[in-house]
Specification:
Shape: globular
CATH architecture of the domain at 6-170 and 212-239 and 278-291: 3-Layer(aba) Sandwich
Oligomer: single chain
Helix content: 40-55%
CATH topology of the domain at 6-170 and 212-239 and 278-291: Rossmann fold
Number of strands: 13
Strand content: 15-25%
Order of helices and strands: EHEHEHHEHEEHEEEHEEHEEHH
CATH class of the domain at 6-170 and 212-239 and 278-291: Alpha Beta
Largest sheet: 6 strands, parallel
Radius of gyration: 19 Å
CATH superfamily of the domain at 6-170 and 212-239 and 278-291: NAD(P)-binding Rossmann-like Domain
Structural class: alpha/beta
Strand order of the largest sheet: 2-1-3-4-5-10
Length: 311
């Protein structure tokens, strides 16, 4: 057994889960990591039976149905209903099973869409959501509020939520039908270089701004929180504190890959929120900041892509 006890990590086969398992601090825990084939998180009875059998000391809830704009717009029902079921079964199930410590991973898509400045934790439920991923956002808000309500009813239950900004890194999804911005760019620019294409298309005009955190840095933050969950605020953003334009991400990927073509723009395509930057005031007070630069993180992610996904 790990010196800190038993940790049930949901979503252990996804990008966040794989990066948590690969982090050096993971060695402090005995990690339970059933696959979706072994444990269906949408099945409340199965989740309850698993918790009764394993009795973990801590749950890190990183599972969910995830995808980019393509997937969210094509399957809004599944993104809402599946994620509500998963969140409720894991969080409420853990509480009813006597688990006292849980870290729930949220998403900055839960914030209002029309905010000019940085997104602070007190803005949740103060304005309309971004329509392109509204269903997913509603489900993540439900999970966050469920943790809040459990702490209200049971002050000894440390059920807390961290809200990462957009993520990228090894074990990301690179399929264009499912991927988020950075892996989608990596795939598109790699293919342009491989095929000799002179142009790569960007949705919108490239000026929308996004904040991306390297998944390895997130893993370190989550495992630090796991080691001293009492010091973690009830709800806290995890981010970089700075953002970049979509054009910047394309330029950085092109530089890393070594593609020297040109970008063209399709301004008829949806781009989501114009800006999404998380406030890191609580994170800074907690004493943590990421260490991986954008170019270094993209280089590490591209190396993973070449090893496992490139044609």
């Amino acid at each position: 057994m790990g010196q800190r006890g038993t940790l049930w990590l949901t979503g252990a086969s996804g990008m966040v889960g794989r990066n948590i398992r690969a982090h050096p601090l993971a060695a402090d825990w005995s990690i339970l990591a059933p696959t979706s084939a072994e444990l269906d998180l949408t099945d409340a009875a199965a989740v309850a039976a698993f918790l009764a059998r394993t009795r973990p000391d801590l749950v890190i809830h990183a599972a969910g149905r995830v995808g980019g704009i393509h997937a969210n717009m094509a399957h809004p029902v599944a993104f809402l209903s599946d994620n509500i079921a998963i969140g409720r079964n894991v969080i409420e199930g853990a509480w009813k099973a006597g688990v006292r410590n849980l870290i729930n991973l949220g998403s900055t898509c839960i914030y209002p869409r029309d905010v000019e400045g940085a997104l602070s934790e007190d803005m949740i439920l103060t304005g309309p959501l971004e329509p392109t991923n509204e269903g997913y956002a509603i489900a993540k808000i439900m999970a966050l509020r469920l943790c809040d309500y459990i702490r209200r009813e049971d002050p000894g239950a440390a059920f807390k939520t961290v809200i990462p900004c957009n993520l990228y890194g090894p074990w990301d999804k690179f399929d264009p039908a499912q991927s988020h911005l950075v892996p989608a760019i990596l795939h598109k620019v790699h293919e342009a270089k491989r095929t000799g294409a002179a142009e790569v298309e960007i949705w919108g005009d490239g000026t929308a701004r996004r904040e991306f955190l390297f998944a390895g840095d997130l893993a370190g933050a989550v495992l630090r929180a796991a080691a001293d969950i009492g010091a973690l605020p009830g709800t806290m953003n995890l981010g970089v504190g700075t953002d970049h334009s979509v054009n910047d991400y394309y330029d950085t990927v092109a530089h890393v890959i070594g593609w020297q073509g040109r970008f063209v723009y399709d301004t008829t395509r949806p781009v989501g929120m114009r800006r999404k930057l998380a406030s890191v005031a609580l994170q800074t007070a907690w004493g943590w900041a990421p260490t991986t630069t954008l170019e270094a993180g993209i280089a590490l992610t591209y190396a993973h892509y070449l090893e496992r996904h490139a044609a």
